[in-house]
């Protein structure tokens, strides 16, 4: 095999952007697309000269593809992925991999049983500032983590939420900002600082006419005693994407695509207990970290996925790590709805029960605009 034959499941929104991106990835060949909307499936299939289907099972069963990109609404990711694994196909799924940790567990197990490559489309892992921060942490530049902060502020208008029946409903989406806009930054946060051990959180619907949350905030506790704060929303313009990680030996700040790293000399713990001058503080100095050049974006994750299939290349965003943002989002929702601190990983049965309650209370939307358009601001 010199190229991975690829099918895209769901091409009415983000999947159409992935189809456009295929020409950038020499290791893959687009062979088929599937979408529940016959017109969309036909239009995209004919545009790229590939087979098209309205049933993802028929697409997977066709034998045309070695692997699939799953770009359907996120509650259906597990169903499609598990079917693909059962038929011997590799899977690259859009974020979040699932809306429920139980389903994420099943996807990981299905991939292991099938012996197939499983990755999640977390393209921010290819971006230089985050790779620099990751390397700094791996090299011990910040030392033991003492405090973390994540602010992931976005803006979405009501027309966005009205664009589809499933958006921002418990039955159709399984959450709001935490499962749609925030997962990329939640993934980065966990990739750099690790998964917290406990969350105490609150969510609310502050601005939009939707069922699910458009704002969430949480206090975090880590196994080593570190604390953190997390805030995410779709109610702010301009947006802010900020991660701060403070350690005993230094600090990393990433904001809006820029990274700053400073080392503390000597380490805080040592200086604090040895200093004799009551107004003195440790010196800090900037740290420069070099990382290899790498193209950033969806195409690079897809290329890595294909190379993992073809040559065994290590995955940038393996499914086993894709579950981190699901754990964190689920813990925040569970803490808010049950008004208590929640330990991570979340109790599967308890969160399952909560989701069933929320879905049972879900109501059909009064207004649906019926728009399926990928974000024009996405950088591939």
Your description of this structure?
- The chain is α/β, with parallel strands linked by helices.
- It folds into two domains: 4-124 and 296-318, NAD(P)-binding Rossmann-like Domain (Rossmann fold, 3-Layer(aba) Sandwich), CATH 3.40.50; 128-294 and 325-360, 2-Layer Sandwich (Dihydrodipicolinate Reductase, domain 2), CATH 3.30.360.10.
- Helix content is 34%, strand content 24%.
- The chain contains twelve helices and 15 strands.
- The chain has helices at 14-21, 38-48, 56-61, 77-86, 101-114, 128-138, 158-161, 183-193, 268-274, 298-311, 319-338, 348-360; strands at 4-9, 28-34, 51-53, 67-70, 90-93, 118-120, 145-155, 198-204, 215-221, 227-233, 235-247, 250-255, 258-265, 283-286, 342-343.
- A hairpin with a 2-residue loop joins strand 11 and strand 12 (250-255).
- Helix 4 runs parallel beside helix 5, helix 5 packs antiparallel against helix 11 and helix 6 runs parallel beside helix 8.
- The radius of gyration is 22 Å and the shape is globular.
